[in-house]
Amino acid sequence: MKTSSFRVVSLPSEIADAARRAVKTGAVDHALITVDSPESSPCRHCLHWAQPGERVILFPYSSIPSGHPYSETGPIFVHADNCPRYNATNEYPADFRNGRVFRAYDSNYNIIDAQVVDGAEPEVVIESLFENPETALMDVRSMTRGCFTFRVQRA
Ligand SMILES: [Zn+2]
Fold this sequence. Notes:
Number of helices: 2
Oligomer: single chain
Distance between the termini: 18 Å
Strand content: 35-45%
Bound molecules: zinc ion
């Protein structure tokens, strides 16, 4: 099977760091939470589930910037303490192989396709969505709550 080269784009470190600063100044839209159950709070920076007892920050993030019909802002978590940014080519994050929906966007941020990954191989779904030359990127989201998890781009 031919596999398209893809790059996993996690939340930029500048945004994670800004959230860590904002929560310290008491920003009302940044909540500091201690995780109490496993697989409840995915950190968008290191792309791992935060473990029970770890602290995370919950804040709104514009996954699709304003000025587009599909502009979207929604809640995400990052670890409250520093964590390494996930940065990999052709390596799908192991913690999020199930329960995700993939939304394919064109270069103007219009949604042009979507597929659910739950039990399927995410690499196969990526391959299939990138077969359309119009697909510029895809956003991977929670299937149940809809929250943005990470982005996939062509490598
Ligand atoms: Zn993290």
